[in-house]
Amino acid sequence: AQKITQTQPGMFVQEKEAVTLDCTYDTSDPSYGLFWYKQPSSGEMIFLIYQGSYDQQNATEGRYSLNFQKARKSANLVISASQLGDSAMYFCAMSDYSGAGSYQLTFGKGTKLSVIP
Amino acid sequence: DTGVSQDPRHKITKRGQNVTFRCDPISEHNRLYWYRQTLGQGPEFLTYFQNEAQLEKSRLLSDRFSAERPKGSFSTLEIQRTEQGDSAMYLCASSLAMPEQYFGPGTRLTVT
Questions:
Q1: How do strand B107-111 and strand B10-13 relate by DSSP bridges?
Q2: Band of the pLDDT at A103, cuts 50, 70, 90?
Q3: Which of A30, A34, A42, B16 could form a disulfide with A51 if both were Cys (CB 3.0 to 4.6 A apart)?
Q4: Do B44 and A107 touch (CB under 8 A)?
Q5: Does A68 touch chain B (CB under 8 A)?
Q6: Rounded to 5 degrees, what are φ and ψ at B33?
Q7: What sign for the dihedral angle of Cα B6, B7, B12, B17?
Q8: Which of A46, A91, A101 shows the shortest C-beta gap to B55?
Q9: B55: closest CA among B65, B36, B44, B69?
Q10: pLDDT digits over A17-62, tens only?
């Protein structure tokens, strides 16, 4: 069974600084995907970034980058130049291909990020 | 707005009543997922549709839960004889032939 662990319940970061949110995963599948989603207080899950297990380079999307260390089974999210609007819950997730066409996601418990002006 | 939409956004119901939620995916997306999120937790997978076929169901989806996706467009999730433990945010997500899923705003259910 797949498992995602996010060990930081809450994080604070000064505006304009960079912050790293930790994520470790466990799976026996050789092929998998890793995701980060942002959930503001409004509740909607916003897709941020994706990393495939066979991708050689770390994924980047604007101010977001995913620090993928396969041997350590970690997929940390780095947010550069934090903004007040980055304050939200952040979830790490892994996709599990079921064989029936489903890429259902397994989520961690999340990290609440607060950006301080 | 071309994103995933869900209706209603909030639902308060009394224990024992039936409720139905609707999800409209992004129009060209053939894959649709339902998740449930309780307070302080990440979302948990409930069920998956590819076009109109329901291909995966989680153990979390008890007999009181049923989902449909007629004609492979919108989907409905019905909970019969609601219990207080059903109180949660119900999230719908859609995707094309790619792993990334795009979520709707969710339906927050409160069972009193």
A1: parallel
A2: confident
A3: A34
A4: yes
A5: no
A6: -125, 145
A7: negative
A8: A101
A9: B69
A10: 999 999 999 998 888 999 999 999 988 999 999 999 999 899 999 9
